[in-house]
Amino acid sequence: MSSDPAETVSSVDRVMRGRFANRFYLDAPVALETVREIVEVARHAGTGANVQPWHVHLLAGEARASLVAALGAAHETEADAHRAEYTYLPNDLPEPYAARRREFGAVFYGGLGIAPDDHAARARNTARNYRFFDAPVGLIFTIDRRLEKGSFLDLGMFIQNIMLAAGARGLATCAQEFFSRYHAVIRSALSLAPEQMVVCGMSMGFGDPDWAARRPHMPKAAVDEIASFHGF
């Protein structure tokens, strides 16, 4: 890393600003040493009392293909029988969050050319989740269910570190809550201990540059909308 603080800040900012949930990947493998480097740096995430509540399973090759096949069978034949072990969003989402969610749907599906009433196309796009969007590396994040909500904060920081470390190495990622509903399938495939709860998954690989160039940019709330400054 550069010894020039301004250059360092610029590099870090560029990775954060350039990060987005990439759902289109090149058919190109990612070296094991690169994946290990990402986990090596990400493990330094902040964590209360140094508990480090996270665990991540990284899959490629046959291991990834085997899990994808099991997930595909479950999703295509009995999707309604699977439920996550935690609630991600409330059914009655309050404002301004509901408006942001509607905006996401319009921007995301609009960018894919999928009409609001084209339920079949939306379902096909959702199904791409279980294939890790065809990325060469799939990640499954778990947390010890005996811990409390505070440990989810730590896990989130670890997950964010994974995404930023990947971005710094030219890789794209997409965090996916989708996998939490298929925890029974994942538990069996990865022989998870009973106390391990499946929180989410992630796709990782070299993003398709054509999609990156033409993708719609997801709007983010302005600083003054999300921050209050006191005593400055």
Plain-language structure description:
The protein has 232 residues and is α+β, with helices and mostly antiparallel strands. It has a domain at 19-89 and 131-214: NADH Oxidase (3-Layer(aba) Sandwich). It is built from nine helices and four strands. The chain has helices at residues 5-18, 32-42, 61-78, 97-111, 119-127, 149-168, 183-190, 209-214, 223-226, and strands at 54-59, 137-144, 172-176, 196-205. It has a four-stranded antiparallel sheet with strand order 1-2-4-3, sandwiched between helices. Helix 2 crosses helix 6 and helix 3 runs antiparallel to helix 7. The model has no long low-confidence stretch (mean pLDDT 96).
Give a quick rundown of the structure.
With 232 residues, the chain is α+β, with helices and mostly antiparallel strands.
**CATH topology of the domain at 19-89 and 131-214, which one?**
NADH Oxidase
- The helix content is 40-55%
Number of helical regions: 9
* DSSP, total strands: 4
Give the mean pLDDT. 96
Q: How large, in whole angstroms, is the Cα Rg?
A: 18 Å
Corresponding CATH architecture of the domain at 19-89 and 131-214: 3-Layer(aba) Sandwich
Q: Give the distance, in angstroms, between the N- and C-terminal Cα atoms.
A: 32 Å
